[in-house]
Amino acid sequence: MSDLNVPCAEEDLARPTPQKMMVVYEAFMDVAKGPINDDLYLEDIQDMVQKSGVQISEPAEMVIDAGRFFLFNEQLADVMDDVGVPDFTTKDVTKPDADRVKRVISALINFAKFRGENQGRFFQTMSETDDLTFQLEELETEADQMLQDLEMIKQQRQAEEPRVEEYKAENQQLAMEMEEYKRREVQTTRQKDEVTRERLALTEQNRELNGAIERLTKDINDLQAKRVEVPETLDQDLVQIPEAIQQLLADIERARNELVAQSSVTEPLVTMPKELSTVVDMLNNVLRLQEQSLNDNLELESRKSAIENRSLTAATIRPRMETVDRLVRNNEEKFKILRENQVLKRAQIEMENEEDDKTYRTKNERRLECYGVEEDKQKRQTEILQREEKLAQESTTLMEQLKLQFQGYTAEMQRAMRQT
User: Fold this and answer.
1) Residue ranges of the Kinetochore protein Nuf2 N-terminal domain (predicted)?
2) Which of 16, 37, 253, 262 is deepest in the core (most CB within 10 A)?
3) How many domains does the chain have?
4) What is the average pLDDT value for the chain, to the nearest integer?
5) Residue 224: which pLDDT band, with cuts at 50, 70 and 90?
């Protein structure tokens, strides 16, 4: 009390008065809690009167003093409860008792001693508590900001859900177009294979036709090499030879008949005259010539039939060769047309494939961009959620630590009060 320049002697405590104890308690309150804001003005009283509807007959100054005294006693009772005097009332101020004052002063001394011993740790704890409170406020502010960002992101996500649906529809359309493109590619490959097979078949057919032409040409050349020149008078000679032979045979038959007639009239001839032997020789020669002529005639007929057969064969082969030439020309024209159509079709297919590839690349790039934006958004949302979870965990941990520190502080205070 002397350090605070408050006059207080042992006699004052042995015979306490309300004025002396009021000075002591005010000094204690200034030390314990600092200056107390117990200002009360007439305007405050009038406001309370108007709100409560109570009629006040005393002067306003008395009401203000009573209000200030009531506020001081309420705060003093709260502090005494913390010090270790839970039964402190207004009577301890207005009607103090020596024993009661001794008990209260003893509690105050013990509290001051305990506070002096633990003041460093208390202020350190309070400093840490203030830091934690400041960090907690910052974290709460950041959490509020993150919640606002999360709400904004949710709103943006809800606003972008139609676009996501559009992107999904576009992706499905692209997948369908990709399937159509693959189907067309397979169909184009099948058509290309069919054209290649037709080309190979035409090439093989052309090769066979060329071989047939070569064989027919060789046969014609062989026939031309074996051809025999027939004289122009052959037909007339062939007609005259049988007539001459028939005439000769008739003469021989007539001569024979004459000889037989003569031999029947005359005597038998013992020796054949010279003329008769000559005739016999002539007849033998004629018969030999006849046989030779018949043989030559048969050979000539066979050669003639062979020539006619070869002529017929040549006449038959010539239309076939013309037909083959015409087929070859038609096949060449068809092959040329097929080649031109194949080139045009290949160019058209390549142009369509290039356009399809370009369209597919464009749509694929758009889809990749959409996927990239969506992945970035999901990544940011995931980061925000992780930060919020981490912040919530840190906040919970800090609150638990603060709670434990306050519980420890309260336990120490209660233990100190029990010791006193």
Assistant:
1) 1-128
2) 16
3) 2
4) 72
5) low
